[in-house]
Amino acid sequence: MSQVIVLGGGFGGMAAALRARAKGHTVTLVDRCPRLGGRAQVFERDGFKHDAGPTVLTAPFLFDELFGLFNKSIKDYVTLVPLKPWYRFEFSDGNHFDYGGTLEDTLAEIKRINPDDVEGYQRLLAHSRKMYNIGFTKLSDRPFDSITFMLAQIPHLTKLRAWQTVWQMVCRFLKSDHLRQAFSIQPLLVGGNPFDTTSIYGLIHFLEQAHGVHFAMGGTGALVDAFEKLMVEEGIEIRLNTTVISLSNQAGRIQNVNIETANGHQETLPADWVISNVDPVHLYNKLLPEESVKWSARIKANRWKKSMGLFVLFFGTTRQYTDVAHHTIWMGPRYRELLNDIFNRKILADDFSIYLHRPTATDASFAPPNCDSFYALVPVPNLQGNVDWNKSGPDLAERVIDALDKTTLPGLRQTIVSQFYMTPVDFEDRYLSPDGAGFSVSPLFSQSAWFRFHNRGEGPANLFLVGAGTHPGAGLPGVLSSAKVVDRLLPACS
User: Fold this and answer.
1) Do residues 272 and 315 make contact, with C-beta atoms less than 8 angstroms apart?
2) What is the pLDDT of residues 197-242, one digit of tens each?
3) What does the pLDDT look like over 93-124, one tens digit per residue?
4) pTM
């Protein structure tokens, strides 16, 4: 029986471990964090529970598939509940837009904002469906390591105008500035700027309409626990608090995975196959000998543009904000200009936009009685922007609290307790995210599909890659689909 070593216990790594086990391999999963989930960690402070993310669950059938590999049902492990609305957009002029639920709900909200955009949205959704049928259904679980396969897709991508940006695509169909903003923010959920991300990510509109947006009762941590329970049941060995320090390569194959435990003990794990859920930039620059890495991977690791960084403020309140939705997108006064500051100028602007997560809208267990749990996520420049987060972190936290106090969460100053935050520095230190990028490399057209880090390792013959930096991209559907790609590539155990 061959030995598969999985590096990293994010959702991509857990999914890959399960798929490898289902093919008969002995599987060991190694992760440097104290619990599984990768960046999906859980923090508990003063009776409040906080999921670090991801908090938006789409394409639940991808979770179902993993349990189905072992003739089990996810319903016996965790409960996923649909949300309504999926998101509430709050604009700086006081207007709001509730997105999600039934199609009729969405159309009614669009009509309230701008009746002329009802028909345009329907055409946008029809276009999104075409993208979904190609980009997700046909290509998301196919390896793009062959230039021939990539070239064969050009006619499809050309027909869908995949060279256009998400913003350009949305503007073809919608006229309202508010609706254009609301229906172009999806790339930000996977680390991209709507003004330069390929419009193929517009498939998210149909994905959401077809399958809804869900929440795991108990939080994302409960979903991670469900995966962990399944892995233990199926005989997968899990090594936590363990850091991969190098990969030994001989004769074009990885022979050993060299690890170090939290107490400094070093150990060598023999490997027949290695599946990496580590950020590809870290993998190719830090873990593999330079001579074993192909030129293509070296170029990507050193030149590809990375996603933005994230500032996340976690806090609890001693009152409940019962009129606040589960997901609120708090839009600042600027849109294009702010995104340009974040992605291109890489400066921390005076203004910002916020993704506000209130899990207690759905699950009261996140806070003590009559209290609320929140996090406020602010897109910020990654560490290439040279922001001094020792100074800017406390200042930004105060500015976010002030903004929410004056708008969505009145009286927040008097009720906030137990606050703490994470900056791009924390993402780099805790999760080995190069430059503190929140979603690995950006989803540009020139950094997608064949141009992205390949799922088949660009170096050792027995190396495979999953996760946000690989095809098809970031977000839970993306990283779970990357494990399906590797499933196609990894031979079954004979």
Assistant:
1) no
2) 989 899 999 999 999 999 999 999 999 999 999 999 999 999 999 9
3) 999 999 998 999 999 999 999 999 999 999 99
4) 0.95
Residue ranges of E strands in 264-403: 266-270, 273-276, 309-317, 327-330, 354-357, 372-380
Instruction: State the sign of the Cα–Cα–Cα–Cα dihedral 27, 274, 68, 489.
Output: negative
Locate the domains of the chain by residue range.
Answer: 3-43+59-79+216-303+441-489, 84-212, 309-431
- Phi, psi dihedral angles at 137 (to 5 degrees): -65, -45
**Contact, 476 vs 57, CB < 8 A?**
yes
Q: Read off φ and ψ for residue 373, nearest 5 degrees.
A: -110, 140
Q: What is the pLDDT of residue 353?
A: 97
As a whole number of angstroms, the distance between CA 450 and CA 282 comes to 20
Q: Which residues contact 350 (CB under 8 A, 6 or more apart)?
A: none
Q: Under a CB-based contact definition with an 8 Å cutoff, are residues 282 and 432 in contact?
A: yes
Could you tell me the two tokens for 63? 């979770």
User: CA 165: distance to chain centroid?
Assistant: 20
> Can you state the angle between helices 476-489 and 61-68, rounded to 10 degrees?
40
Residue 472 contacts residue 55 (beta carbons within 8 Å): no
> Using omega within 30 degrees of 0 as the cis cutoff, is the peptide bond preceding 115 cis?
no
CATH H-level superfamily of 3-43+59-79+216-303+441-489: FAD/NAD(P)-binding domain (3.50.50.60)
What gap in Å lies between CA 452 and CA 243, rounded to an integer?
Answer: 25
pLDDT band, residue 162 (cuts 50/70/90): confident
Cα–Cα dist 405/416, whole Å: 10
Q: How far is CA 215 from CA 113, 166, 236, 361, in A?
A: 27, 26, 26, 11
How far apart CA 347 and CA 255 sit, in angstroms, is 43
Q: Output Rg (C-alpha) for the chain, integer angstroms.
A: 22
Distances (CA, A) of 386 to 28, 305, 392, 413, 441: 38, 16, 11, 30, 18
Residue spans of beta strands (DSSP E) within 292-396:
309-317, 327-330, 354-357, 372-380
**What tokens were used for 420?**
């703490």
